[in-house]
Amino acid sequence: MSQQPAQKPQEKTLFARLMAFAPLAVFVALGALFAFGMFGQRVDRHASPLVGQPAPEAVLPALDGSTFDLAAYRGRPVILNVFASWCAPCRLEHPQLIQMSRDPRFVVIGLAYRDDPADTTAFLEELGNPFAAVAIDRQGAAAVRFGLTGVPETYVIDANGIVIRKFTGEITPRDAVELTRLAAGAGS
């Protein structure tokens, strides 16, 4: 009977050596994917297929009991802010909306998203009402037509009714300057 000599530890096969580095290779590959996700090409969170297109039709009940029709504002630039009384970032951006509403070159309109009108009224009474009109979108259908991804969102619509900018998230003082500049230049 012939016995094969036992394999010495130093004589590991190439496959065994490669397998020893497999966990490290997996870790490096996952790290590279993570780094690409963090620092690679980004999608603009303010991008919207509506930019360059006519604003969607929005005929809704208004907070004051009348009927709101966005088309009635054609001929004048509009900043349309989608907000809700239950939205914390909406509360934080509110001072910027009040400041922007003082500019006579455009009109600031509110779209109360999935909110009870009584709560919307209380919110505006507490913080001040920067809006020339407030449309009530209880079911969220109008916001969906605008492509809403969450509140707050703000749209700049030129005097011809064309969406020229979508802004997602809370408006900071710096953002307010940019949105004011865009809306003020959208009057022609």
How many whole angstroms does the radius of gyration measure?
A: 27 Å
Question: Beta fraction of the residues?
Answer: 15-25%
Low-confidence stretches: none
Distance between the termini: 100 Å
Order of helices and strands: HHEEEHEHEHEEH
Structural class: alpha/beta
Q: In oligomeric terms, what are we looking at?
A: single chain
Q: How many discrete structural domains?
A: 2
Which architecture name of the largest domain does CATH use? 3-Layer(aba) Sandwich
Give the strand order of the largest sheet, numbering strands 1, 2, ... along the chain.
5-4-3-6-7
Question: What's the rounded overall pLDDT mean?
Answer: 88
CATH superfamily of the largest domain: Glutaredoxin
CATH class of the largest domain: Alpha Beta
How would a crystallographer describe the biggest sheet? 5 strands, mixed
The 3D shape can be described as elongated
